[in-house]
Amino acid sequence: MKNDKMDFTNHDHNNNINNWERGILEKLLLEVYKVQQRTRMWRWVWRIFWIFLLLIIISGIFGTKSEVKIRENHTAVIDLSGVIDSETNQADVLHEGLENAYKAKNVKGIIIRANSPGGSPVISSIAYQEIRNMKAKNPNIPVYVVIEDMCASGCYYIASAADKIYADQSSLVGSIGVIGSSFDFTGLIEKLGIKRRVKIAGNNKDMGDPFVPETPEQQQIWKQMLSSIHNQFINAVKQGRGNRLKYTENPDVFSGRAYTGEEGKAVGLIDDYGNIYTISRDVIKAPVLVNYTPDNKWSKLLGRHLSSELQHNIQGMMQRPW
After folding, report:
1. Which one of 12, 111, 185, 238 is least enclosed by Cβ atoms within 10 Å?
2. What's the predicted TM-score (pTM) here?
């Protein structure tokens, strides 16, 4: 009898253990299932994200303004903004924008909307020449520059290639000059007891080094270079503005100083007052505005604006198996 009771107790004990093990196994399997479900969900989330990103990139690459088809007459707008440098390369932006505008139907005039403090004389010169060359090939479509807050230095270099320049009375224009700046730390390193060891081949190879004294010869070289670039700037403005620029009566116009729009009109830096709405409506007679500025934000984002390491990581993520 005692043995029977013990067998019954052991049987219950074994059943409890089996039930506990089964419960643990069920919970474990349920957690595994949940993890798999979450993994599948995130896999689909990432798939949708990369597909969405790819569609944006493709639309940025192929959705150029040359594909814009507008049946009614309109004015093409191309933005010239920010510091003029190799990073944004406004010469490329203007070339592509003008090319698309000239190819499009029903474009009655082109407005270059300018808002820039200037920058690279080389890129400014390239843009200036391109505008003039493309204007010569398309004489029936006028190109106007409309200045917003500022169009100074290299920006005005470019603007002078247009048929006419318009601005607000309070805009800043001109600044026809060239600047080259640096620092002289020679006195500082002498006080600190630091000696600079520089090995050069050529007397002027270290020209511009802020830790090396500048010689009179180097000062003269700098002066000649800046003067040469300044003369190129002046000649371009004279060629572009022609008799409208009253530089004989206003010798300060080439001194590098900036003018307000009101002052600029008096000396011939601009033709009249206006904005993109008044010029498109009253001068071009096509008030519908279409922006033809090339949109390359995404190529910049995935290109030079990302470090090579980050770009490599993103490419690696995109190539992961889904």
Report:
1. 12
2. 0.68
